[in-house]
Design brief:
By secondary structure, the protein is of the alpha/beta class. Helix content is 37%, strand content 22%. It contains 21 helices and 26 strands. α19 links the parallel β24 and β25. α14 runs antiparallel to α15. It is globular. 57% of the residues are buried. The site of fructose -6-phosphate has 15 residues, from α10 and α18.
Length: 613
């Protein structure tokens, strides 16, 4: 969603800011803008559409000397919430005096009341945004101390914010603050850069500080002072990012999505490395912070997430029940806190989130903590809010995921869930030998995925047959049911084909009415328990004219013969097979979207990190 960049330091700040915005494009946005101070004057440039349009406009409108003399500014990519993605609604917004500029992520929930109050005092608003109300409020509070003005204004707002503020009246500093929307500060050498995520900081420094909720910081080129909103100094540690710019580049691939699909043997190897113990037949996940006794006392696992992370949770549900003999259930994070969940200290709640910033998942974590559950997280982004608020959990180590459509995060989430289930299973019912056998299955995952990737050309050819349909149904059973859901999500989000995932048995309870001659059915027909029933479901579809693309187990020729087209995945444990199977569907979705000429890495309307409820 929206992205913030702020910079104070050396010359050519506009180029730094525009490059930073490019790094944040993957988050999803529909307009962009930049504000700088030039000889004490506030100068703003904004544009609907892409950062490239903003960059062209800025370079056309601003003299080249301006670029070279500027040393500070703030910039933003906006994902529209209040008002359409027009130039007027784009950030930065200015206060009544036109001397204070603000970029903002999040939502000011009481903006209508604040706006009415300010209008009563003579303020004039140009945009439909909640952000413009906040900057007017800051201006109204400013009695000669910008920091205090921001504190006073933030005390009056309800909702969430990550902000950066620039003032022509105090031109040597940037103020930044957060509540609910992430802010990372890059600690450079004679320069300070802030951003909504580290992608915009990598080019400058590896040293970062993550702000906590209700932190507010005063930044200069060589100092960072952090306080809370009551003006009490707080200390935040400097962390090392641990990956460089190349990790956030396409590296010769046409799209980040394809690069990330191909990275999966490596990302899985990273997620697994050092975490399997073949002596005891278990896994070593120190971040869980649990003793065998803690695990033995658990009565239930509750997995929460959204979107792709929700689908990974559903695979986890099968794994915890199958391997650990533990009652497991999945809850959609957005619903979790509103349904008053029944939780206690023997319930393990696992929050699953690639970004670690998803607002609904974060709210669910807070609710689970409130209810005294044993809460941990499974995040990819190190230092993200959910990872920090849970305090315990397991990082995926998948590396930066830039494509909006999640791929390598999903497979690493499932791999880590399998390792968690193995650990719990070993404590509750697995013998050492059973544990070792399953650990070996997990160990082979990178090779299994590499085998699927070898079929890329074949999958691309199959995609040609299906790319021109407007509807598709994905069906699966058992742990392959969440894979069907994930396959449908991948296809719909990047190709805009209307795709639905169903439990194969559910089709005949309604959706089968939609099948006509040639409707694509993508059937997860791997050789796992329930396959016979699956073959029956496939015949029901075929009898109504559907065209069947089967995901089948290598060597299962009889099943392959039931399909119009098929993609093979290697033979392995049914839970482990979810990972190679989903990789086949990721490639299928990618090629369909490519053939349809879609904007694969940044699909319309989507945001990488969904920081509003
Ligand atoms: C789909 C996708 C989304 C995310 C969802 C949750 O490809 O990426 O459905 O999975 O927005 O995001 P995280 O995992 O960051 O909480």
């Amino acid at each position: 969603m929206c992205g913030i960049v702020g910079y104070i330091g050396k010359a050519d700040a506009p180029t730094v800011l525009l490059n930073g915005l490019r790094r944040l494009e993957y988050r999803g946005y529909d307009s962009a803008g930049i504000a700088v101070l030039d000889n004490g004057q506030m100068v703003i440039s904004k544009s609907p559409g892409k950062v490239s349009a903003l960059s062209e406009r800025t370079r056309a409108d601003w003299p080249a000397e301006r670029f070279s003399r500027l040393t500070m500014g703030i910039a933003h990519t906006r994902w529209a919430t209040h008002g359409p993605p027009t130039e007027i609604n784009a950030h930065p917004h200015l206060d009544q005096s036109r001397e204070i500029a603000l970029v903002h992520n999040g939502i000011i929930e009481n903006y209508r009341a604040l706006r009415a109050r300010l209008e009563g005092k003579g303020h004039h608003f140009y945009s439909e945004t909640d952000t413009e109300v906040l900057v007017h409020l800051i201006g109204e509070c400013d009695k000669g101390n910008l920091f205090q003005a921001v504190c006073d204004a933030l005390h009056q707002v309800e909702g969430t914010f990550g902000i950066a503020v620039l003032s022509a009246r105090e031109p040597e500093k940037i103020i930044t603050a957060r509540r609910g929307s992430p802010i990372v500060i890059g600690v450079g050498d004679g320069e300070t850069i802030i951003a909504s995520d580290a992608a915009a900081i990598l080019a400058h420094t590896q040293r970062v500080i993550y702000l906590d909720d209700n932190d507010i910081a005063i930044l200069t080129a060589d100092s960072i002072e952090i306080r809370d909103l009551n003006n009490v100094p707080v200390t935040r540690e400097i962390a090392e990012l641990g990956y460089d710019e190349t990790a956030a580049e396409k590296g010769g691939y046409g799209h980040f999505m394809l690069k990330e699909i191909y990275e999966q043997p490596d990302s899985l190897a990273n997620a697994i490395r050092g975490r399997l113990d073949f002596n005891v037949g278990s896994s070593v996940l120190a971040g869980m912070g649990t003793s065998p006794r803690d695990l033995a006392e658990l009565s239930r696992v509750v997995l929460i997430g959204c979107g792709t992370s929700l689908h990974a949770s559903l695979v986890g549900e099968y794994a915890f029940e199958d391997l650990a003999d533990l009652h497991a259930e999945v809850q959609q994070a957005a619903e979790f806190r509103y349904r008053n969940p029944i939780l206690g200290s023997r319930d393990l709640v696992i929050a699953i989130s690639q970004s670690g910033e998803t607002a609904d998942t974060l709210a669910a974590v807070r609710e689970a903590n409130q209810k005294g559950a044993f809460v941990m997280s499974l995040c990819n982004v190190v230092g993200s809010t959910i990872a920090r608020e849970t305090g315990r959990g397991v990082y995926l180590h998948a590396g930066p995921e830039i494509s909006v459509a999640s791929t390598k995060a999903f497979t690493c989430q499932v791999a880590v869930l399998l390792m968690m289930a193995l650990k719990l299973g070993r404590g509750r019912r697995f013998s050492r030998e059973e544990g070792i056998r399953f650990a070996r299955e997990i160990e082979h995952l990178p090779a299994l995925v590499a085998q699927v990737l070898l079929q890329n050309d074949r999958i691309a050819a199959i995609a040609e047959t299906y790319a021109h349909n407007e509807h598709a149904f994905f069906i699966g059973r058992g742990p392959m049911y969440p894979v069907a859901l994930e396959g449908a999500l991948k296809l719909k989000e990047i190709s805009y084909i209307h795709a639905e995932g169903y439990h194969a048995a559910e089709l005949k309870h309604g959706p089968i009415a939609l099948l006509v001659q040639g409707t694509p059915i993508i059937a997860l027909a791997c050789d796992v328990p329930g396959k016979d029933k699956m073959l029956g479901n496939i015949e029901e579809c075929r009898a109504r004219g559907a065209r069947i693309l089967g995901i089948v187990t290598e060597g299962d020729d009889a099943t392959a013969a039931c399909m119009d087209d098929f993609i093979e995945v290697p033979r392995c444990h049914p839970l482990v097979a979810t990972i190679p199977a989903v990789v086949a569907l990721q490639l299928f979705a990618y090629h369909v979207a490519r053939i349809r000429g879609c904007e694969i890495d940044q699909p319309r309307n989507l945001a990488k990190s969904v920081t509003v409820e």
